[in-house]
Write a structure and sequence with these properties.
about 120 residues; transmembrane helix; Lipoprotein
C-alpha cells in the first residue's frame, strides 16, 4: 500500500502540469469568447489542490493520518472538478479520477490505522 501511495503521489505531480496547461488554455478561450464559465479557474484550483495532495501523499505515506488528509484533499479537488465541468469537460474526468484517489487514500489510511492499533 505504501508503494502505491508513493506512485499516486508522483503521478499527481505529472497530472498537475497537464491540468495546469489545460486549465490555462481553457481560461484563455473563456476570456477570448467572453464566456462566463469558470472551468479554467476551477481547473487551476484543482491542479494546485492535486499537487498539495501529492506532496502530502508522498511525505506522509507511512502515516495513516497523512493518508486520510491526502484523501480529503483529493476528494475536495475531485468535487470541485466535477462541479465546474460545464464547458471544460476534461475537468469531470480529472475530478472523477481524484475522487477515486480519495477513496483509495481514505480506505488505506483507515486500514493502516486499524493495523497499527492491532500491532500495539
Amino acid at each position: 500500500m505504501k508503494n502505491v501511495r508513493l506512485i499516486i503521489g508522483i503521478v499527481s505531480f505529472i497530472l498537475f502540469f497537464i491540468i495546469l496547461f489545460q486549465s490555462c488554455a481553457a481560461g484563455v478561450v473563456n476570456s477570448v469568447t467572453a464566456s462566463s464559465d469558470a472551468g479554467g479557474s476551477a481547473g487551476l484550483i484543482v491542479a494546485f489542490m492535486v499537487v498539495i495532495a501529492g506532496i502530502i501523499a508522498i511525505v506522509c505515506r507511512k502515516n495513516a493520518t497523512g493518508s486520510i488528509v491526502a484523501g480529503v484533499v483529493y476528494g475536495l479537488s475531485g468535487l470541485i472538478g466535477v462541479a465546474n465541468s460545464d464547458v471544460y469537460k476534461d475537468l469531470s474526468i480529472w475530478g472523477g479520477l481524484f475522487i477515486i484517489f480519495a477513496i483509495f487514500y481514505i480506505f488505506s489510511g483507515i486500514k493502516q490505522k486499524k493495523s497499527d492499533k492491532a500491532n500495539l
